[in-house]
Amino acid sequence: MYQIIQKIYEKNNKILKEGVKKVLNGEDISSLTSAIKDFTDILGKELFSEIVTQIENLVFEDSKRQSEYEAVRFAEKSLITKNGKAKFERRYYRDNETGENVCLTDKILGIDKGERIDKKVKAELIHKASEQSYSKAGKLVVPEMEISATTVMKNVRKNEWKMEIEERKEEDKIRSKNIYIQVDEDHVKERNKKGCTISKIITIYTRKRTLTKPERIPEVKQVRKELVDKFTFSGLYKDTQEMWEDVAYYIECTYKKEEIETVFVMGDGASYIKSGIEWIGKSVFVLDTFHLEKYINHLNYDEYLKTKLKEAIDQYDPISTENIMNEAIKKVEQEIKEDEGLGRDTKRLENRLKKVKETKTYLMNQWDGIEAHDRYKDKLTGCCQEGQVHHTLSERLSTDAKVWSENGIDEMSQLRAFTQNKGDIYQKIIDISTVEK
User: Fold this and answer.
1) Who's near 422: CB < 8 A, 6+ residues apart?
2) Which of 86, 180, 279, 324 has its CA 20 to 30 A from that of 225?
3) Is residue 224 within a helix (H) or strand (E), and if so which, with residue range?
4) Three-state DSSP class for 28?
5) CA 318, 319, 320: angle at the middle one, nearest 5?
6) Nearest to residue 383, comparing CAs of 396, 373, 392, 393?
């Protein structure tokens, strides 16, 4: 090994000499550190190539190999590593039994057929791509080398990022009386399509824990909450049954089922969310207050009616709620009638009427989810799914008006959930490579 390093040093030490010369001629130390960086990158690439050559020679001289494989030809291979693109030659051999041509050195090194990027580099690329654009990720991983956005994208989409769920041993399963399932969605612009595509996110946890950050300003305490035993699913999930089967299977594998008293399915009341109570045992639907407040705010134009509506809802009184909404509808209809009689444009009022009617329908259809806040007030902790949507999906998928393909939305949603669940990207790549072989 020392001889290999000595050989590489003698070949490339002019880089170091040039750096020293620049410093002696008055340039600052940056000239020397840059020269050292250039030299170590070359050292890494050439050392790798030399070691591969030695491994290839050992394979070639191995007596067992000679009895089973016949050397056919040399072929050059290039591989992107942390030190840059390394090039080396190795032989292809013909299997005497099958007649197949194989590269034994690649097998020893764990290099897959057609692989052009080292798996560690690939894992880092994918991790960076989960946080920022493909083009930015391609510039950050390998110093002095830019990997194309297309290459990064292909490596993200080449893999399946759904987390493998393994059943815990009985003694390791989580013991909790209550489980909370928050469900929401992000609206992502899809290429060559009008409107947006929905990516769903499901967050499972057992409780919230309050964390207080160190005080930056004496007068202000920064407090945030953490979801305990948090696990996230995300993706297009066009098949609602598949989504809830995944969630149900996770609960079965992770929790002591006999100790569960209630599973709270929380969301905006969409049919695909409420259908969860059909799949999850001991579950009830709870309407999240964010969307409830959004519909109440449709009455912002009339503070009196809005206040009466909030009071009726806070008292869990469906009859008063319906009556107030009927009153709101009647008032807007009367305003429209009066403006029509005066020849005024009624478009603004018609839009208001539409929203008020939607609010009434929504409140009446979601009343069970509203009443659940009263029935389970001692157990509910509040829904924070909008924050989960932003942190898991929006930051990467919909901020700054990004445009995606359908597959891209699905893969990135899965990848973002995978990393939040502390999935090991490198190990996933290794596992996929092993299965493919």
Assistant:
1) none
2) 279
3) strand 223-228
4) coil
5) 95
6) 373
